[in-house]
């Protein structure tokens, strides 16, 4: 409504004395929701029209908003960029470390979490307390809401009967099932396996070697003593 129209209304209502017509603005906030079934690329035009009750034919207050749906499947490891190192002592319980995956996309997504192939007798097991997770073979399949964090336990077991120090490197990966490798994220692990300490701080292997050497010396000494 312009100032002249406002003044005419004031005259009709006998409000000229002590009143002044001034332009004013009203700010309106719109919240637009997208149907969950909408696909990327779908869209349209939204027309927003503001009219005066006194002059509904005036459509100068028309605003057109262009809308286009863009579904984003993105995830991120909170520990990304740093290699995770684990100390594993042979014969001791398996070692577990927690990692976290955040759904940074704009839609609820199914996320697959999996580890690289087990090698040299090492074993990596993944599990989660998240209610939306299920196991498929050795992979975790989890439904994660937009902005939600998924916590995953990575359990590493050393080879049975291992005695020689070994560093086992493996990768844990996560990806939205909708896009797969296109949005896959990886995190590197290194499990450093060592033998437990034995007598005098030596490993069991070293203790056995020393004991064997001592036994050989004693046998040789016994043979020489008999010959005398």
Describe the structure.
With 228 residues, the protein is of the alpha+beta class. The protein has 2 domains: 3-68, no CATH class; 75-200, Immunoglobulin-like, CATH 2.60.40. It has 2 helices and 12 strands, in the order H-E-E-E-E-E-E-E-E-E-E-E-E-H. The strands form 3 sheets. Strands 4-12-11-6-9-8 form a 6-stranded mixed sheet, with no helix packed on it. The chain is rod-shaped, with a radius of gyration of 36 Å. The termini are far apart. The mean pLDDT is 83.
Describe the largest sheet: 6 strands, mixed
Instruction: Give the SSE string.
Output: HEEEEEEEEEEEEH
Q: Strand percentage, roughly?
A: 35-45%
* Mean pLDDT value: 83
Extended strand count: 12
If you consult CATH, what is the topology of the largest domain?
Answer: Immunoglobulin-like
Shape category:
rod-shaped
Count of alpha and pi helical runs: 2
Structural class: alpha+beta
Second-tier CATH architecture of the largest domain: Sandwich
**Helix proportion:** 10-25%
Radius of gyration: 36 Å
Strand order of the largest sheet: 4-12-11-6-9-8
Detail the poorly predicted runs.
none
Cα separation of the termini:
128 Å
Count of folded domains: 2
Features:
Immunoglobulin-like, six-stranded mixed sheet
Brief account:
It is built from two helices and twelve strands.
Layout of strands and helices, then pairs:
Elements: H1 3-12, E1 43-49, E2 62-68, E3 75-77, E4 84-89, E5 95-103, E6 109-115, E7 123-127, E8 133-136, E9 139-144, E10 149-157, E11 166-176, E12 185-194, H2 204-227
Parallel strand pairs: 4-12
Antiparallel strand pairs: 1-2, 3-5, 5-10, 6-9, 6-11, 7-10, 8-9, 11-12
